[in-house]
Amino acid sequence: AYDKYLKALKKAQQAEAKKADDDTMTETLTPPEEEPTNRTAVVNLASKVYKKAINSTLALTAQLEDFATVGTGTIVSPNGYFITNAHVVAEFEETQKAIVDYSEEVYGKNDRDYRFVADLAYVNPKYDLALLKTEPDAANKPVEFCYDDAFPGEDVYVIGNSKGEGLCILEGIVSDVHRSVGGKDYIMISAPVTRGNSGGPVFNSEGKLIGVVKGGHSDVNSMNFVIPIKTIIEFLQEAKDKEDCDF
Predict the structure, then answer these.
(1) pTM
(2) In CA terms, which of 45, 116, 164, 192 is 20 to 30 Å from 63?
């Protein structure tokens, strides 16, 4: 009778162990319940900058006497004022001091395909900047200036009319904060800007403007130059003083 008791006890213990193993296997094979993904929580930094800044950017086309140009506009005022490079809307003599030809009307559109015509309000080839004016559009938002100095290695984001094919965002870093080109001081960035990005805004990771695209080396796509915000402010103040522009 005692031997039968031991056999029954052993059998019960084996059954209990097997049940525990089966429960563990079931827990292992059963996938955990997943929480629904919140896309706004996982969106990357470039997307956030794009969302904030796209309404401050315009795709431009200008018609000069002998050729047409494409570029990008950066909105600086809710009153319809925006800036771009002077070389987008005008042609200069070799000394870069006198205007040979300029576009009386510049055509543009925003990201929502709202099309408009803008008039040239002020231009200064020394800065390679031009100020233009169009009818205000409630959807267009002025950029937010960054008054802090850019620093090497800082992430930057460029929104512009690349190749004249529409607005898009490009990413890079600040490569140099004081790059002298033709006796002028520029920020150098690695973002691969191209024809059509001229005059387009360059943002930091907070979506604030640190400058606008000037151009770059034709044989190196990662050495491109940006007109810094301090130069833009000087230009805008000059336009306000000389042309009484109401920003």
Answers:
(1) 0.80
(2) 192
